[in-house]
Specification:
Blueprint: H1 2-26, H2 36-83
Amino acid sequence: MPIGVVIIAIVAVAGVTISRGLQVWMTRPGRAVLPQADLREIRDGLGQLQQAVDAIAVEVERLSEGQRFTTKLLSEQSRKVASASPADEHLPIQ
């Protein structure tokens, strides 16, 4: 767990640093304003990125649901095996 906290802190610091750098770069004097076509392309690209992230989130949820189901089945199976007494193993199958 401590490794996760360190990684999150590093990512947060890097994100803040990058966002501040972009802010300074975007507001510097003499910077040419982006044409509307470029802004439209950026907006379209961000929309596609958002759709891709949403699709990945749905797939991850499906995978986790399958894992929960498999874990439930294995848990039930192990309980059945544990509750079976050794005398039951010698009974004839009918």
